[in-house]
Amino acid sequence: xxxxxxxxxxxxxxxxxxxxxxxxxxxxxxxxxxxxxxxxxxxxxxxxxxxxxxxxxxxxxxxxxxxxxxxxxxxxxxxxxxxxxxxxxxxxxxxxxxxxxxxxxxxxxxxxxxxxxxxxxxxxxxxxxxxxxxxxxxxxxxxxxxxxxxxxxxxxxxxxxxxxxxxxxxxxxxxxxxxxxxxxxxxxxxxxxxxxxxxxxxxxxxxxxxxxxxxxxxxxxxxxxxxxxxxxxxxxxxxxxxxxxxxxxxxxxxxxxxxxxxxxxxxxxxxxxxx
Length: 275
What we know:
By secondary structure, the chain is α/β, with parallel strands linked by helices. It has a single domain, classed as Aldolase class I (TIM Barrel), CATH 3.20.20.70. It is built from twelve helices and ten strands. The chain has an eight-stranded parallel β-barrel with strand order 1-4-5-6-7-8-9-10, surrounded by five helices. A two-stranded antiparallel ribbon has the order 2-3. The protein is globular.
């Protein structure tokens, strides 16, 4: 029986991975590449004030596999899927770049950016400043920062660096302890560069419960304009339930990717606006 893949397992692997990548490509090389790169697209504006169908702003995700679901798509065309998402009204793309556990690649970001007009998030397990430089050099407009992976000091430092690179940070939390820790830093170091994500997936058991975001809303009611609910969104009923509680920003992946045409799945998910 295989050992369950936990967040700790992934982070331990990521430390070794980052060390190896630094030997392959120096920080100085990445910084030079970033200096010559075009400015990032405004991920924050796209998600917080975007104009998704029915006022529903979806960050649509591309990934080949996950520890919880296994292989999601045998025929995996991230660029083609991203184009479907854009045509179906997604306001941004989330691209899984972890290779070991999600079958992703950092190179995919540039290919997606060339094909779509909407901004792209590097979704990975970021534990080192190097990865933010790496993300910007690869063309990412935003990065995911998982609170459970970072100390408070690390999170603050990475928020500062993302801001300096004009990137949006989507700061993800799952449990109440981390939400309370992150909540006091919303808008740091400058408003307009940070979104707050609540992950409905329990990182210990890998199970999802869309009611989790709703139960946490009391702690973030002043920040609903930057709140993104993540994981477990499967039906129009889930969307409707969230909207009734004032949540209109969603990160959705697995539900769409299991459909033969992910763009059609996105249309079905958000095609009917609720008043």
